[in-house]
Amino acid sequence: MAKRKKIVGKKNTVKTKKIFKVKKAPKLEKMPKAKKAPKLKKMPRQVLKKYKALLLKERETIGGDLSYIAHNTLNKSARDASGDLSGYSYHMADQASDDYERDFSLGRATSEQTLLYYIDEALKRVEDGTYGYCLQCNKPIPKKRLAALPHGELCIECQKTNEKK
């Protein structure tokens, strides 16, 4: 609550001035210290080389498939792709099936491009020394899973919880 204080001016006039009490700020509670991320134990170099070779082989295979799809889908016109040699237009059903095949090929190319991205990320983790550990829980990913899916980022448990969402 504000109090008033009398102040005497230069010519003996009395003025009143409001005085406010400043409340102290409440003490802040101490925040608990954040836990440090557990130090990851790096895989042996021989094992990392093996997985790097697997990743590079898979990348080469997918890169070849991707270039083949791009060459056959994007570099041909609709008439060339259908094999139509005449100057006449062809049936709408034929055009629809050709468009479907083209869309299917482009969708496949997109999924393979995404797969290349995951492989590149895995290769970066090999170089960092963080390869073979789950990106969510930092637990080691089982070797059987890495052999089946070398570009895998998550352990099986974290993958299951992400798929349920």
Please tell me about this protein's structure.
- The chain is mostly helical and 165 residues long.
- It has a domain at 45-77 and 105-164: DksA, coiled-coil domain (Four Helix Bundle (Hemerythrin (Met), subunit A)), CATH 1.20.120.910.
- The protein has five helices and two strands.
- A two-stranded antiparallel sheet has the order 1-2.
- The chain is flat.
- The model has no long low-confidence stretch (mean pLDDT 76).
Approximately what portion of the residues adopt beta-strand conformation? 5-15%
Taking all residues together, what is the mean pLDDT? Answer: 76
What is the CATH H-level superfamily of the domain at 45-77 and 105-164? DksA, coiled-coil domain
- Number of strand elements: 2
Structural class: mainly alpha
At the first level of CATH, the class of the domain at 45-77 and 105-164 is Mainly Alpha
Q: Helices and strands, in N-to-C order?
A: EEHHHHH
| Head-to-tail CA distance between termini | 54 Å
Helix content: 40-55%
Largest sheet: 2 strands, antiparallel
